[in-house]
Amino acid sequence: MGLQPLVIRADADNRIRRHGQEAYPHECCGALIGRDRVVTEALALPNSTDEGPRRRFLVRPVDYLAAERRATALDAELLGFYHSHPDSPARPSRYDLDHAWPAFAYVIVAVEQATPRALTSWRLREDRSAFDEETVAVEPD
User: Fold this and answer.
1) Which H helix or E strand runs over 71?
2) CATH number, domain at 32?
């Protein structure tokens, strides 16, 4: 794809991992805020799914709006979203594919037995047929 790596500042990486650990055995979700493919803040959002938070997550429109407002307040952009996969690989599911938008980064953290492990990032293809994995770089704050 030729994209630069998605850079996640250390504090944001720690917040994503901690949120995944705290939500275990359920999925957590949140927004990625920053600029120019550099995530400076991971904003935890409520998992509002009615399908059971063990294997699903849902960001309500009101929470999406709150993430947009937070990004604006920081003079930043909403770069994407993160969620956890409890006791599952950090790879997108069919559900993830069906609910994604092409413009965003989708970070997934695998949480095994309440311990955060692999963290990956994905981009939806413009034709919505599949995700492509993108490189993630964690940098000091």
Assistant:
1) helix 61-73
2) 3.40.140.10
